Amino acid sequence: MSKRIGRGRDVRPHTHLPTCKQAHTVPGGNVANFPMDFLADRFLSAVLEICPDAGNSSEDNEAQEKAKNYEMCYGHNKIRDMYCHSCNQVYCMECSSDHVDHAVGTVKDAAMSAVQNMTSLTTAARERHSPLQEAIEEIRQSIEETEAVHAAAKEELDDSFEEMMQALKHRRKDLLEDLNDLRYDRVSVLKMKRNELCATIKRS
Distance between CA 66 and CA 7 in Å, rounded? Predict the structure, then answer.
């Protein structure tokens, strides 16, 4: 039967972890005593090995000291220096029976592999970033060139239509003058004939 402590919370001496589904002793009978992500702590250690200048602040030193408290296996009191990739869990050599047929390795190797993977991903991202930036710049230049060509073509079109309108206006003026001259000549001839006919009628 479960033992009750604190404010009526159920506390069991053993529990099954969600990653590897194996039964493990609950530290101090309280699940709150389970350690933090040990892989992350070892990952930080691997980073510090590569970049020794990092983590010099008092906060980082305090975090490192705190991480040391979680290095020991609660069940066997040995350093948990092994990592199970299948369960995403760190453990000591005495806990190896819980990870039979799993993909395992040392914590240091797992941390170094994570660092290398992150470095590769960062490098690949930067390599992809540069061509993308170049493509964006080419598109920007193409847009500016297109706008410039459009503005020049519009100006040329407006100038051409203005010239055509002026030429049409002049042509209309010339045609109207010619039409007026023709009308005047025609009317003058007709009036002359009319006058001659009127004079003939008066004489008869």
Answer: 28
CB 5, CB 30: distance < 8 Å = yes
Q: Are 5 and 15 in contact, with CB atoms under 8 Å apart?
A: no
Which residues does residue 157 pair with via DSSP β-bridges, in sequence order?
A: none
Indicate the residue type of 31.
V
Structure tokens at 103: 């993909």
What does the pLDDT look like over 49-79, one tens digit per residue?
A: 545 554 455 555 554 554 454 567 777 778 8
Q: Which residues of 112-123 are buried (b: 16+ CB within 10 A; e: fewer)?
A: bebbeeeeeeee
Q: Is 168 helix (H, G, I), strand (E, B) or coil?
A: helix
pTM above 0.85, yes or no: no
How far is residue 76 from each of residues 11, 41, 84, 109, measured CA to CA in Å? 21, 20, 17, 22
Written as one string, the DSSP assignment of 1-59 is --EEETTTEEE-SEEE-TTT--EEEPGGG-GGGS---HHHHHHHHHHHHH-TTSS-SHH
